Here is the input.
Amino acid sequence: MKSIAELRARICCPTVTPMDQSVPNLPTVKNRGVYLALKAKDRAVLDIGCTGQISAEIRKQAKAYYGIDKAAGDGVEAVDLDHRPDLMPKHDDVDLVIASEILEHLSNPGYFLLALKDKYPGRECYITVPNAGGFTMKGDCEQVNAEHVCYYSYQTLRSLLGRYDIAIDNARWYNGDPYKAEGIIFKVTL
Here is the structure.
């Protein structure tokens, strides 16, 4: 016979399986772009995957700005991060790396992380990814960017970073309610 406490615990908290991973109740950032731009203020920034309005705001705030993307542009160097991240340029004055919404596009994110650590060891880095837990369906259609090859949850991104000995300093949700937010921001040390 089970005790009342054991029965109550079983009713209130379903059985946890080896697949269940707890996720901390992280703070939420209302706007990823504003948050990253504030972090770039008066810093020498390497902005990886730098397109759009967020990168424009980061560039305005940075004291020195270096951009990397798949296509060259104004102040942006072209690097094939999917196949040759080792060709990523090294800028000695960079003290902040922003890799926003890039990992989910890469076939081998580990190769990218190794190259990043090699070029920018010990640097502060913000890595953002869409949140797999915020994934939505509309009827029988996925709401997915066709260029993405994977999605990360809090735990899977934590696991990936751990495999490459990248220290996680803190994490936040962005653009939405905790656990179901649009994405995750990890502040790490390379």
Notes: The CA atoms of residues 130 and 156 lie 12 Å apart. Strands lie at 28-29, 44-48, 64-69, 76-78, 96-100, 124-130, 137-138, 141-142, 167-174, 183-189.
